[in-house]
Amino acid sequence: MNELLMIVLAYLIGSIPTSVWVSRSFFGIDIREYGSGNAGATNTYRVLGPKWGTLVMITDMVKGMAAVKLALLFPQYLDNDTQFSNFQIGLGLAAVVGHIFPIWADFRGGKGVATLFGLVVGISPWTALSCAGVFLVVLYLTRFVSLSSIMASIAFPVFILVIFNVENHIYRVFAIAVALMVVLTHQKNITRLLRGAESKVPILKHRDRRKQRRRQNSSI
Fold first, then answer.
1. What is the model's pLDDT at position 76?
2. pLDDT by residue (tens digit) across 97-114?
């Protein structure tokens, strides 16, 4: 019974609609009515700027981390690593569901990538760091946040099943499920990527200017 209450609490933590509250409190708008219509960090970055987008991303990550740490309130799981990890996964997933379907914001939330990442940070930091590396490399090369998220999520089960060879079967299934879920929730982004219509984040502007100058110089 206590475990069920903690899962409900984890859902409520995940339901905190960071981007919606930030956009309403500081800009008088609903972020879901602008840009991609998504209540996530990427859309906040595009619409409200990097400062607010970063704030939303970090807060959404903390939601996932805080949810899995609720497992520490149950000392009976601490002596069994597998049971402890499984309970953490359950709590983290509840937070992710809360982020996607937030009770505090009419059940219209984000895609849950940042909260998922926070979940993984809370359970296995080295795996999270490896996935973050994949994300940053793809983002540097393409500037597509959606593609970076998809590639990092696909890398997640590769790290769990192959690189780190985690023996917990539930964690292995969870890693595969995460990759599938991220791909499914990014179907519109994938369509836009294939059409060449996906928006890029405005980073690495100096690199792009240098490339443009090189092209202009080579055409002279």
1. 87
2. 999 999 999 999 998 999
Report whether 140 contacts 129 (CB < 8 A).
Answer: no
76 in a structural domain: yes
Angle made by CA atoms 108, 139, 92, in degrees to the nearest 5: 40
d(CA 209, CA 178): 37
Q: Is 167 left (phi over 0), alpha (psi -120 to 50) or beta?
A: alpha
Residue 15 lies in a domain: yes
Cβ-in-10-Å burial (0-12, 13-18, 19+) of 74 comes to middle
Report the alpha-carbon distance of residue 42 to residue 134 in Å, rounded.
Answer: 17
- In which domain, by residue range, is 73 found? 2-205
- The total of structural domains in the chain comes to 1
Phi-psi region of 161 (alpha: psi -120 to 50; beta: other; left: phi over 0): alpha
- pTM value is 0.85
Contact in structure between 102 and 16 (CB atoms under 8 Å): yes
